[in-house]
């Protein structure tokens, strides 16, 4: 695991060279071994880093500059190609080390299954953990065509681990009938189609909570983010997702980690998806790391 020195490859704009002095660590999880439609999200983390070069370091939304945030870009975790079980185990080991060093983990996916081992690690440290999930898809399946390790299952696994009542999903517009029935019957919070408004309404009930936030880029309408493996029509705009990120930044929460997943560059020759993702990461760095 690469922790002691600055990553020698591509880095997110203004990442600092010293892991020890960093408050947050940006890292990639280049895995797309279980996707059910279009692969390629393993190339997302580095393309997001490349797109960040076109960003301004200053956020007019938050009136903050990236020089104010001490974060280290550790590069991508070297995962065993095609082996989902081992990859998930290595991600968890990686996050265990970050948490041991008191770092804020900010992950770049990769398919959405990579969130599962991160939550396993963070739940060991924060037993009262809440999870905010922003996505087009419910991800509440128990298996996909007999495979329990699937990018359509991470939120169901998280519900089983931390309690469904501690999971809050927003923007959902796709899933099996059984997934929506589970959400209704289990006590989890699910808001369909929209993100910013229902999120703002929900946040007072989470005051002071330890919260992990996972964002699937396909919550955006394909008009704003065509570069993803399972695009779903009828999504939100980039403006609404930015509003949600800023609402979370201003809320009375203890955000303990986050990720942004499912950017698949091959399906977006204009790179608008990676460009949008890099801006979201900038706002997350500036708004969520205290």
From TrEMBL:
The Gene Ontology biological process terms listed for this entry are: putrescine biosynthetic process from arginine, via agmatine; spermidine biosynthetic process
Q: Which pathway does the protein contribute to?
A: Amine and polyamine biosynthesis; putrescine biosynthesis via agmatine pathway; putrescine from agmatine: step 1/1
What cofactors does this protein use? Mn(2+)
Tell me the protein family, please.
Answer: Belongs to the arginase family. Agmatinase subfamily.
- Known EC number(s)? 3.5.3.11
Judged by the first EC level, this protein's enzyme class is: hydrolase
What organism is this sequence from?
Amphibacillus marinus
Q: Quick check: keyword Metal-binding in the entry?
A: yes
UniProt-recorded name of the protein:
Agmatinase
Q: Which reaction does it catalyse?
A: agmatine + H2O = urea + putrescine
Q: What does this protein do?
A: Catalyzes the formation of putrescine from agmatine.
InterPro entries per record: Agmatinase-rel (IPR005925), Ureohydrolase (IPR006035), Ureohydrolase_dom_sf (IPR023696), Ureohydrolase_Mn_BS (IPR020855)
Query: Which keywords appear in this protein's UniProt record, sorted alphabetically?
Result: Hydrolase, Manganese, Metal-binding, Polyamine biosynthesis, Putrescine biosynthesis, Spermidine biosynthesis
The entry lists its GO molecular-function terms as: agmatinase activity; metal ion binding
Short name of one Pfam family for this protein? Arginase
The note on cofactor binding and number reads: Binds 2 manganese ions per subunit.
Which of this chain's residues are annotated to bind Mn(2+)? 112, 135, 137, 139, 216, 218
The UniProt entry, under Gene3D superfamilies, shows: Ureohydrolase domain
